[in-house]
Amino acid sequence: MSEIAIIGGTGLTRLGSLEIARREVIHTPYGEPSGPVTHGHLFGRDVAFIPRHGPGHTIPPHQVNYRANLWALQHIGVSRVIAVAAVGGIGDEMFPARLVIPDQIIDYTWSRAHTFYEGNLKQVTHVDFTEPYSPDLRQAMIQACIAVGIDAVGHGTYGATQGPRLESTAEINRLARDGCDLVGMTGMPEAGLARELGLSYATCAVVANWAAGRGEGEITMDEVGRNLDAGMRDVARMLEALMPRL
Ligand SMILES: CSC[C@H]1O[C@H](OP(=O)(O)O)[C@H](O)[C@@H]1O
Ligand code: HPA
How far is the CA of 25 from the centre of ligand 2 (A)? Predict the structure, then answer.
């Protein structure tokens, strides 16, 4: 049984270093997860892995079944979730290919299935979300980065947009005024649902590009791919240092 799970995002459809033991198809009361859960060993730890956008990267951010993914992970005994996510950099220090461990999040998404607490409830429930990410898991990731000399940013506010289109310059300016340092399309409802299930959850973000209007010209998928290739190499190094610390 894997107590630790990794949700892979854009640029991390599979974990190269994962020694795969088996794949498990899980049906949930909320529908189908993004794909089978892969169980394996990663740097000495049992780990479950699920690719957020599906094994072939075919599920766009607004159609990811976040509830099914997190329910499935909890169902197999996972208690800690490491989310890997590609983001656009808004703040000056959030430059391309850099790793960021955000500590706050703002939700700009809409019409996504965003809670487990609906339907025939015995009681209305409001979970606390003051600290949206697990402080312990964040600290472990930050220490892992330091241990292997990765120049990561250990804080930042993630603005979760609806996608799948990228943002306009004015939208990014608004996010910046709101205090967002990063922009991505999958941070919510994933983080909120993890909290509802009582899972420890933290994100390792990889800056794929300067957010709209913060760099030169348009955002191209070429630059996104190049930066993610570089950033994911650091994610792999971070995970190698992280696993023994968990
Ligand atoms: C320009 S790539 C946009 C795509 O990448 C991110 O996905 P993930 O968070 O799963 O790594 C972003 O949220 C968008 O879905
Ligand atoms: O610029 C972006 N905006 C939203 N999501 C993203 N994911 C990677 N880059 C971006």
Answer: 30
